[in-house]
Write a structure and sequence with these properties.
Layout: E1 10-15, H1 24-28, E2 31-35, E3 38-41, H2 42-53, H3 58-61, H4 64-91, H5 97-108, H6 114-123, H7 128-150, H8 157-166, E4 172-173, E5 176-184, H9 187-198, H10 203-210, E6 221-226, H11 231-234, E7 248-250, E8 253-263, E9 266-267, H12 270-300, E10 303-305, H13 307-310, E11 313-318
Antiparallel strand pairs: 1-11, 2-3, 2-10, 4-9, 5-6, 5-8, 7-8
């Protein structure tokens, strides 16, 4: 199901009072999650739940299964955020304003203008301050990753070689050809060009003169093409180096190919791939170290979750025309 289809303009989160002795205000202020003293109250939980459910259409958003998944997401997100903050404070990992500003600027650059950016915030039911907090958390998580990684020793040549041997599929390259083409929009013209090629006329000169493709100025040189890149180019892989194809038709017109060179597929040698091997090794180790760290933090932390209180939240959806 398309998550955006029939998307509700508003998802209302109603607090259902559990007894007459409670009023709505007091219920809203009750703590639902406590992570080593860092707390999330029912009102804040409701807002986060609402924001997550807005990503789904009205029918899915009010289903018990999706509400449970969204509730789990909110819980995990708050626990992670709390642990990150606490670790940063204990370990001296700090953020300065310029780091956060740079991240915010980079994110906002993905929108054509400020109006588009603010429209996104409105659609996500996200206040600017909340968005800034999300950015801060992203930057902090990156710095915690880096701090954890700095505690690990540099990989040895044996470490890298073992990673390469165990993950060779990551260093595989495909068969490729150095390809030229001539593209025209008329079959008769294509046949005349092919006849000229058979008379040993220069493919490059004919491409410059007749081809309607963008690479005509380069004598039809497409460049190196990997197998599996473009359907029409696949037929050129059957040609030998120096070979010319018959006329082939596609949605773009009538093609004639020439294969200048061919290189078989295979695996990069360890020496040639060493820089990439090290990057992937470090990224894998960083993720492993982070997962282990998070597991340790959760085990030693005092985390309490009031599921009964969470159940006081009722989800109501309304579609506005």
């Amino acid at each position: 199901m398309n998550r955006k289809a029939c998307r509700p303009n508003a998802i209302l989160i109603a607090l259902v009072l559990c007894s007459c002795t409670w009023n709505k205000q007091r219920l809203s202020e009750q703590v639902v999650i406590n992570v080593n003293g860092q707390q999330l109250n029912l009102k804040e939980y409701s807002e986060r739940l609402s924001r997550h459910l807005k990503e789904f259409d009205a029918i899915v958003a009010r289903s018990p299964q999706q509400i449970q998944r969204s509730r789990d997401f909110v819980i995990k997100e708050f626990i992670l955020s709390s642990l990150l903050d606490q670790y940063a404070n204990e370990s001296g990992v700090s953020l300065n304003g310029s780091e956060i500003d740079e991240e915010m600027t980079a994110t906002r650059a993905g929108y054509p203008d400020d109006l588009s950016f603010r429209k996104m915030l409105a659609e996500e039911n996200l206040a600017l301050a909340e968005w800034k907090e999300n950015v801060r958390r992203t930057v902090l998580q990156r710095k915690v990753f880096k701090a954890l990684g700095s505690k690990s020793p540099q990989p040895t040549a044996e470490d890298l070689r073992k990673y390469y041997d165990e993950n060779k599929e990551k260093f595989q390259y495909k068969e490729r050809i150095l390809l030229r083409q001539i593209v025209v929009d008329d079959l008769g013209k294509a046949q005349d060009i092919l006849d000229e090629i058979k008379k040993h006329q220069s493919f490059e000169s004919l491409a410059k003169k007749y081809s309607v493709a963008p690479e005509r100025k380069a004598g039809g040189l497409v460049g190196w093409v990997d197998r599996g890149t473009v359907d029409i180019f696949e037929k050129a892989f059957a040609l030998p180096a120096g070979g010319t194809s018959p006329i082939l038709e596609s949605a773009f017109g009538f093609h004639i190919f020439k294969v200048e060179k061919k290189e078989p597929g295979g695996y990069k040698k360890f020496e040639d791939a060493r820089n990439l091997v090290e990057q992937l090794y470090l990224a894998t180790r960083e993720q492993r170290d982070y997962t282990q760290w998070l597991d340790q933090q959760i085990r030693k932390s005092k985390v309490s979750i009031n599921y009964d209180l969470m159940n006081q939240v009722k989800v109501e959806t309304r579609i506005q025309e």
